[in-house]
Amino acid sequence: MIGGADVRGGTPSTEDFGQRLRFLRARAGLSQEALSHAAGVSVRALADMERGRTRGPQRRTVEALAQALGLDADEASGLEAAAALGRPRPRTAEGPAVPVALALPRDIQDFTARDAALARLLDLAQDAGPDRPVVGVVAGQPGLGKTAFAVHAAHRLAAYFPDGQLALDLHGMAAEPTTPRDALARLLGAMGIADAAIPAGTDDRASLWRSLAADRRLLLLLDNATDESQVGPLLPGTGASLTIVTSRQALAGLTSVHRCDLALLRREESVELLTRIVGPARVRAEPQAARDLADLCGHLPLAVRIAGQRLLSRPHERLGKLVARLAAEGRRLDALQAGSLRIRAAFALSYRQLSTESRTFLRRAALAAGADFSPETGALLAGLSYDEAVDCAEELADAGLLQSDPSAERYRFHDLLRLYAAEQVEAEDGPAVRDTALDRTTHWMLRRATAAALHFDVDHDGKAPSGDPDPDGAPATRQDARAWLEAERAQWLAALRRAHDTGRHRQVVDTAEAMHWFSDLNQHWEQWVEVFRRSSDSARALGSRREEAVHLNYLAWAHNLCVHDPRAALVSADAALAAARDSADVLQEGWALGYGAGALQRQGRTEEAHTRLREAACCLASQDSPQARLAELTILNTLGTLLREIGRPAEALDIHRRSERICRTGVPGRTDELIALYHAVARQQIGNDLAALGRRQEAEPQLRQALASFETAQMPAWAEQARLDLGRVLGALGHPEARRTLAAAHDALAELRSPRQDEAATALAALDRAATGS
Predict the structure, then answer these.
(1) Parallel, antiparallel, or unpaired for β 242-247 and 258-261?
(2) Rounded to 5, what percent of the chain is helix, strand, coil?
(3) What is the 3-state secondary structure (H, E, C) of 158-217?
(4) pTM, whole model, 2 decimals?
(5) Which of 183, 264, 378, 469 has the greatest number of beta carbons closer than 10 A?
(6) What whole-number distance in Å separates Cα of residue 393 and Cα of residue 230?
């Protein structure tokens, strides 16, 4: 038996050194006394090893035993791996715990073989030191079990890395693999860095990641890499870390790495894996059928596993029956295997054993966008009810054909299986059925996305949005709506693309319009550029110059604030201005002038920005709508700030007082809570204007009121800037709260990745110099 019983049926388990040693000694025909004499090891020590009293002898002892037994390189490595697993492991050190956002996947309990490769990684783990982070590359053709091996090794090595183990799928087989920039964001998030504090650029993110990893003993698993350029920025530069990279590519360009290229299983290893899955009794009953089945699976671990799971689900089915079925289906290559000849038969076999509904669900789910999908998406694509979809997904997860998320009701494909399932869509459904499924899903997704986004629209404040395709299951609160929009971002964005590409321009425009206020909460989503580019294009296709102006303005906003591209923002703002004037829409003309001014100011073209802001304020003042008043408030506050920054604080104060008067009058159709936020902005700027004029006693209460309003509204980015402004005024007044206020602002602004953190640091330094008289 394997893993703790009779060893005559195969090679003993890696985990049992004594059993393995006893097997190898018996095979060599040596007594304990003879092996003791040949290896220079005492009989008592040898007996203790075989009885399990000594589970992890030292490497030199194992080498002596291997030489005395006449073992080849692979067997010697296997013996050393078993010994290494029995040695005392390092005590887990107390220290900073890494969050489980990128926790290791569950280990496979029936993992088989790969002894030499595992021993190599054990050596690497022991060699890792503060000045030599170690990188191991696990490469080979699809289906070799690279991920399973890496996960198994990571679990075995976890005790050597007490500061955390992180696993990240780089989606190397996807149409758009994970970019180094996005991968670094996930790693930094797992290390506890808030989204707002993650740097924008790839190089800055890589630098921060390396600095965090430098003083930690981490194990990093980078799974499914596509090329060297994707992996390079993710590798720690210093620190006692071990990185395991898996890839279908050789990654030959990576320097200073240790390579672990997996090969096909040997025949006996394939049979051992099958034995661990279905049990030794069934294999002993049909040993030749087990060997034939291993041959038909091409000794590819994934193929053997799928065949074994099929047998496990039918405990009374003979192995020979499965061998006959598999042989009849053939094992030919095609593009799906990407160089692996033998996995198609295993996929086809597993697929054809499913119920009709589960087969439909599996292949249609391959049409879902993103790395994972919900049963809701699968139901739409497959034309099933939600409950039916959940049943299918669970069946497929139990069969090993889908991987279930450990915390959410979401599922993901193995890359090769997704390709296989997508091919079945073409073979069994055809283009017409596929397009119908995609159109149905697109329509539903955009209706749900639109209704969810309207929870954040000020015109729908306090009202339940209508139009959801499933009102009973619709998000009921803003929190629910946000959770759905974030979880299904890939799906509704793909739906928006399809609607745009298939000419459903009205739905594109309406969805993007509903997203407008929601987008303000997620300025870090670079996707807003695509959303509003497509919606402005759809508005143009509809022939609506007014709507084109609206969405070009949204696009200018996205370029300015989401991707920090003021040149592109200015192009969009100028196009919006032209469309607004063509359609005589003064509101959009004002917004276009304002967004253009913002782009000009970011390019250092201050006078041009000033001119546009004056023009924007003038045209908006002539309008009576609530929308115009809010736009005017934004423009006035921006204009006043610009005036103060160019040395004209008295004019700035007049502008901001004008903004405050609008707030005190109120804006019809807008809630008091919303206007209070605009009023808080005006108060903050009035306080800054007064401070610039030397009237600091008057500035203090204005800034305190602004800070309180932002804190009440839970707007930390605004609150901490107001706290900084207040701290500087308190410092100039010699107030005892000054240093504490500035220090709190500095720490919070640094966490939010605000450029104003430098101002806080400068103010703190000046305060300290003044206190010491230096």
Answers:
(1) unpaired
(2) 65, 5, 30
(3) HHHCCCCEEEEECCCCCCCCCCHHHHHHHHHHHCCCCHHHCCCCHHHHHHHHHHHHHCCC
(4) 0.59
(5) 378
(6) 32
For residues 757 and 377, give the distance between their C-alpha atoms in angstroms, rounded to a whole number. Answer: 43
Angle of CA points 415, 416, 422, to nearest 5°:
95
Compute the distance between CA of residue 30 and CA of residue 68 in angstroms, rounded to an integer. Answer: 10
Decide: 360 and 384 in contact? Cβ < 8 Å: yes
Task: Round to whole Å and give the CA distance between 472 and 634.
Answer: 38
Which phi and psi angles does 412 have, rounded to 5°? -140, 155
The residue written with tokens 């279905």 in the block is: 278
Phi, psi (degrees; rounded to nearest 5) at 430: 85, 165
What is the dihedral angle through the alpha carbons of 98, 99, 105, 109, rounded to the nearest 10 degrees? Answer: 70
| SS3 (DSSP) at 137 | strand
d(CA 684, CA 353): 67
Average pLDDT, the chain: 86
Q: Tens of pLDDT along 340-391? A: 334 665 567 667 778 899 999 999 999 999 889 999 999 999 999 999 999 9
Whole-number Å distance between alpha carbons of 525 and 530: 10
Q: Is 687 exposed, middle or buried, given 0-12, 13-18 or 19+ CB atoms closer than 10 A?
A: buried
Distance CA 395, CA 450 (A): 32
Are 224 and 168 in contact, with CB atoms under 8 Å apart?
no
Q: Which two tokens stand for residue 708?
A: 């309180």
13 secondary structure, DSSP code: P
In sequence order, the 6+-apart residues with CB closer than 8 A to the CB of 161 are 125, 217, 218, 219, 241, 242
Compute the distance between CA of residue 760 and CA of residue 748 in angstroms, rounded to an integer: 10
Integer Cα distance of 35 and 41 in angstroms: 8
Distances (CA, A) of 338 to 145, 225, 416, 642: 15, 15, 9, 59
CA dihedral 757, 758, 759, 763 (to 10 degrees): 100
* Beta carbons of 709 and 687 less than 8 angstroms apart: no
Phi, psi at residue 138, to the nearest 5°? -105, 110
Alpha-carbon gap, residue 111 to 438, rounded angstroms: 39
What pLDDT shows up at residue 15? 53
Measured CA to CA, the distance from residue 147 to residue 173 in angstroms comes to: 13
How far is residue 133's CA from residue 219's CA, in Å, rounded to a whole number? 10
The answer to whether the CB of 307 falls within 8 A of the CB of 297 is: yes
The C-alpha atoms of residue 61 and residue 46 are separated, in whole angstroms, by: 10
What is d(CA 165, CA 155) in angstroms, rounded to the nearest whole number? 9
CB atoms within 10 A of CB 77: 19
- Cβ neighbours around 72 below 10 Å, total: 9
Burial of 744 (0-12, 13-18, 19+ CB in 10 A): middle
CB-CB contact of 475 with 452 (8 Å): yes
Which one-letter amino acid corresponds to residue 774?
A: S
- Measure the CA–CA gap between 129 and 161, rounded to whole angstroms: 11
User: Which is more confident, 470 or 338?
Assistant: 470
